ABC superfamily ATP binding cassette transporter, ABC protein (Liquorilactobacillus hordei DSM 19519), 299 residues
Amino acid sequence: MMEQIISIENLSFSYGKNEIIKGLNLSVNKGEIIGLIGENGAGKTTLLNILLGLLPSKKNVQVFGGHPGSLLAKQKIGSMLQGDLRLSNVRVEEFLEEVAMQYNNANPLESILIKLNLVPHRRKFLKELSGGLMRRVTFAQALLSNPDLLFLDEPTVGMDAQARHIFWESIEELREQGKTMIITSHYLEEIQQVASRLIVLQAGKFTFEGTLKELQALHKQTTISITSESEQHNFAELVGVVNVEESGSQVVIKSVDGDRTLKELLLKYPRVSNITVEHETLEKIFLQMTTDRGNSKND
Ligand SMILES: Nc1ncnc2c1ncn2[C@@H]1O[C@H](COP(=O)(O)OP(=O)(O)OP(=O)(O)O)[C@@H](O)[C@H]1O
């Protein structure tokens, strides 16, 4: 049987009169990697803070079968939140040693410093770290407790290419170990590669939950680019086509039924060449979803 790690039933949350989270339901099983995506201000960080017990909730939120923020949950969760640890006059290794002391089964600090390439920075003071280096130290802190559940809020902001690479490699290892994760990120290309399930949060409500494939099927616009030397054509008439742009012999066709459009295209216009077919990326789908909502708001 699947082990349920997080359970949320009809959760709402307000800051004063401002309702931020609106009737959310969610169940997360062991080993799932949830990619939580949403515009700025959608409520992602607020939701993570509720799951950590940093913001209040009622019995409708359970983490490891208990209340968020319980001693058990604290031992089992590693989190990497937004906001830097600008403590004065504390060195990286002193800070991490202190964190490790709070846990019963802490990972060896030395191995984490090596894995995250932090050995050359261990004697630096936190206050002198760059933004990206600070994120790496924050990730080290999240890993120290050898957590079963990780909340990673915008983990790669400010990281350089190498640090990002090391980060996603570590996530892959954690996935193989069966760890459960909720990751928020605005780098959708990165998140779509690791997430087993995507959740879109818009203005405090989940507007999509499922795999990337399922999301793509809902927004199934396909772009077919071709070269056509023939003057005699009417690509707009092909099945599924919603838009055609022509520039000389270059033609870009948008279709909501890519497979059938392509079939009919090749049947009717066998002489077209340089055919490329592109499905929607998560980035484009997300832009479309948020723009649609923006438009309907102004209706
Ligand atoms: N302490 C607070 N007091 C009042 N309002 C707050 C507080 N923290 C956040 N908010 C508001 O709650 C809303 C959701 O914020 P939250 O940080 O959860 O969004 P987010 O999805 O994480 O955004 P981002 O992508 O920018 O990190 C925003 O409108 C924000 O202004």
In short: Residues 220-279 form a domain with the Alpha-Beta Plaits fold (CATH 3.30.70.250).
